[in-house]
Amino acid sequence: xxxxxxxxxxxEQKEKLEKERKRSLDQxxxxxxxxxxxxxxxxxxxxxxxxDVREQVGHDTIEAxxxxxxRRIMDIDIALRKIxxxxxxxxxxxxxxxxxxxxxxIPEAAFDIDCEKKLRK
Length: 121
Ligand SMILES: [Zn+2]
Prior knowledge:
Blueprint: H1 7-34, H2 49-85, H3 100-105, H4 113-120
This protein binds zinc ion.
């Protein structure tokens, strides 16, 4: 029984992943621009303390978002590497083919749902 994913499907996923990757990179760029700590005026301003606190919170939120995006980009890179090696869509834990419906939802998924659930526990 051959349960491998159709080539056409993998190509579609590849396109999706590349688009996602670019979108995430753009988002990281614009987040970095929004970060008050990268504002060149920041160092010289004599803002009140509450402004500094607000900037700190803004900075932390942006940093967390950037971290999430960078993690996603890493997952996408791994998925793209798997595509070039012909190993895309194979669960890293049980080696079963991940269902297409799941990959459509999460193109960079490394595990099928069962393994994902077990790993999260
Ligand atoms: Zn699995």
